Amino acid sequence: MTIEARIRELGNRHRVLDQTIQKELTRPSVDPLQVRELKQKKLRLKEEITSLEARAT
């Protein structure tokens, strides 16, 4: 898999996580621990994307 393909894949996962977080936040019984874990996963993905983008240039 090329770096560009990996970046696209991670970007898609990042967007899906963002949508999941938004759905969770609209629920009446929000689980703050679950939202926190989702946000941490999203941040790790963003950091990996940024790292790959730096290597690709």
Number of domains: 1
Individual helix count = 2
Q: Quote the distance from N terminus to C terminus.
A: 17 Å
Rough shape?
elongated
What amount of the residues lies in strands?
under 5%
Give a verbal description of the structure.
The protein has 57 residues and is mainly alpha-helical. The protein has one domain. Helix content is 86%, strand content 0%. It has 2 helices and no strands. Helix 1 packs antiparallel against helix 2. It comes from Brevundimonas nasdae. This is DUF465 domain-containing protein. InterPro entries: DUF465, DUF465_sf.
List keywords for this structure.
single chain, 57 residues, mainly alpha, 2 helices, 86% helix, DUF465
Write the layout of secondary structure elements.
Blueprint: H1 3-26, H2 32-56
Helix pairs in contact: 1-2
InterPro entries: DUF465 (IPR007420), DUF465_sf (IPR038444)
Protein name: DUF465 domain-containing protein
